[in-house]
Amino acid sequence: MKGVAVLTEGRSGSNWLGSLTNATGIMGRSQEWLKQLHLGPEPRRYDVLEETVIREASTANGRFAIKVFPRHLSWSKGKCGKDFLLEVRKNNDLGFILLERRDRLRQAISFYRASVSLLWTSRAKGARSPVPYSFAGISQAFFQIEQSYAFWRAYVDLSQLPHRHFFYEDLLPDPRPYLEAVAELLDVPAPAAVPVSQLRIQRDDLTEDWVERFRQEAAKKGAIEAIEEVPVPRTLDNFARIALKRPLNRRRF
After folding, report:
1. Cα(57)–Cα(63) distance, integer angstroms
2. Could you identify which of 95, 128, 141, 159 might form a hypothetical disulfide with 112, taking C-beta atoms 3.0 to 4.6 angstroms apart as the criterion?
3. Has residue 166 got a pLDDT over 50?
4. CA 240 to the chain's CA centroid
5. 3-class secondary-structure state, position 164
6. Which of 76, 144, 65 is nearest to 104 (CA)?
7. Residue 245's Cα: distance from chain center in Å?
């Protein structure tokens, strides 16, 4: 089968771009399929994991798409002891796209707000209570984003993977280059017109207020709050790790 893996980090525009390719009905079903929320019952063996992901990520024409963050790859490696992308490549024609966002600060603010509100897209349902500003929270998100992009650049370099490289800001005015690249990797026709996305940009005036506030505070505080030890999140994953006597996961996102 032919597939495409989008290597990125949260709030990079990947939801929007995935909504465009998904709307074609022939470019796979782009989603974070290595995220337990989307997997359903957790597969206990690697072969079941790969089979489940490819099935869920595929369209009827036998094409699949998966969006991958570094923590997804780390989770599958810890769970099954294998590099998921490497294994998928062994039996499938898998192409790669590296997607970044140049404006790391606005990405970090968006990441922090979504992680607190749990509203990751404009279609997400839930109480839209105000998210409190947090210099430390935004700083930690900023550092995680930088580390994620560095991880993917190193990954494709060390693995010698041919890949397409896009920046969100370049695609905002016209996403057709991205659609054409995915179509080429999947060997399907590119859409004659850009599909209509059901998502809208979540950036607002509050984002711009926080950008200015963060820059002012960063000039005074530096990055010290971002490198302080982060409290261990009270997540189901960490409760399970405690029960199994495994190291705790300190990532907040």
Report:
1. 8
2. 141
3. yes
4. 24
5. strand
6. 144
7. 29
Residue-wise pLDDT for 192-239, tens only, equals 999 999 887 766 789 999 999 999 999 998 877 666 655 555 555 555
Per-residue pLDDT reduced to its tens digit, 91-132: 999 999 999 999 999 999 999 999 988 876 645 555 567 899
Tokens 């057709």 appear where? 176
Name the residue among 88, 89, 141 with its Cα closest to residue 113.
141
Cβ atoms of residues 99 and 11 within 8 Å: no
Provide the 8-state DSSP code for 43: P
Look up the pTM and report it: 0.87
Sequence-ordered list of residues with C-beta below 8 angstroms from that of 139, at least 6 positions apart, any chain? 108, 218, 223, 225, 226
- Alpha helices (H) along the chain: 14-24, 36-39, 46-57, 70-80, 84-91, 104-117, 135-158, 168-171, 176-186, 205-221, 236-244
What is the sign, positive or negative, of the torsion defined by CA atoms of 47, 53, 56, 62? negative
User: Are 3 and 54 contacting, i.e. CB atoms less than 8 angstroms apart?
Assistant: yes
